Predict the structure.
Amino acid sequence: MSDDHARAQDFLDELYRLNGADTLGNPGQTPATRIQVRTADGQLIGEALLSARSTEETTLAISAVAEYALTMPADYQAGRTPAPEVDPLLIADLEDYFAAVDPQSYLPDVFACDDPEVAAAAYEQMVTGEWDGEL
């Protein structure tokens, strides 16, 4: 598989993921857009049916990247702009700080919340790291 084919497949996979996240909240929605993904030489990779919301979100993301590329052409290198390196000692300090927080210190906030079920689900996610996708 060529690099271009792999990039096109990654793009299609991300479209599926975006639409899937939107579908979880609204499973009966009607597709608004059909997007075919092909390599530059015309090889079909696949297609995705996107909801109206997923179409809007994709358009916003592409617009933001295009605006950045036009505004900062010297800084923009599609997919190759290195992420800034974070100091490993800073990461260790943050991990130590959060490891030292007593989960019970959050309980008064959970019980005082207007929606205790949502607060309890969020609390469970913070303490156990598990989440069933519902709040």
Remarks:
- The chain is about 55% helix and 10% strand.
- The chain has a mean pLDDT of 79.
- The helical segments are 3-25, 52-71, 88-99, 107-112, 116-128.
- The longest strand covers residues 44-50.
